[in-house]
Design a protein that fits this description.
Number of domains: 2
Radius of gyration: 35 Å
Helix content: 25-40%
Largest sheet: 6 strands, antiparallel
Low-confidence stretches: 48-54, 77-81
Shape: elongated
Strand content: 35-45%
Distance between the termini: 117 Å
Number of helices: 1
Order of helices and strands: HEEEEEEEEEE
Structural class: alpha+beta
Oligomer: single chain
Mean pLDDT: 79
Length: about 190
């Protein structure tokens, strides 16, 4: 049995074959472009998460607590200096446990407020009462943590502020150089 193929049928099959080859050739550049874009996106996403690890976090306050009045007496708590307070800092890794012992506060202090900032290798701690209307003073113990300490040395400045958090930047109550590797400090705090 003889099969006869018409020329028009051959041309049609030939054209379909050519179109299939062209489609496959056209898909290759599209696939390459999609692959390059997807790879770029994955690399970018990976770089974003690892760049967070490269940017150092700023030291910040956590776990602030106070005892309330431990004892009280009459007088001006700004000028009573016969019995001084202390500031302790115990450093372990990138965290410092901090303590103010026997802060002289007005009896109606309500809350002990503490603000921690860090700029230009200087850590600033500002402490102040929420209220100051009483005629008596009392001793208050305060504890808190400072997390994400910088590596190496830094200057520590501590200020007493008024009830609005305002203080004179020219007169810190304490200025010391802190070496994180040394681990523990205890300073008189007047």
């Amino acid at each position: 049995m003889k099969t006869s193929i018409h020329t028009s049928q051959l041309n049609t099959e030939d054209e379909e074959f050519r179109n299939t080859i062209k489609t496959k050739k056209n898909m290759k550049p599209r696939f390459t472009v999609i692959f390059v874009i997807a790879s770029f996106m994955l690399i970018t996403l990976g770089a974003c998460s690892s760049s967070e690890d490269l940017i150092p976090s700023s030291p910040h306050l956590s776990q602030l607590q106070n005892t309330g009045c431990l004892d009280s007496g009459f007088g001006d708590f700004e000028t009573e200096n016969d019995d001084f307070s202390t500031f302790e800092m115990k450093i372990e890794g990138k965290t410092a446990e901090c303590f103010f012992n026997s802060l002289k506060y007005p009896c109606d202090f309500e809350n002990v407020n503490v603000i921690v900032t860090y700029e230009n290798e200087t850590m600033t701690i500002i402490e102040y009462p929420s209220s100051d209307l009483a005629d008596c003073i009392c001793d208050v113990d305060v504890s808190f943590q400072i997390e994400d300490l910088p590596e190496g040395n830094f200057i520590l400045k501590i200020f007493r502020a008024n009830t609005n958090g305002e203080y004179n930047k020219d007169y810190p109550k304490l200025t010391e150089t802190i070496n994180v590797k040394d681990g523990s400090y205890n300073f008189p705090y007047y």
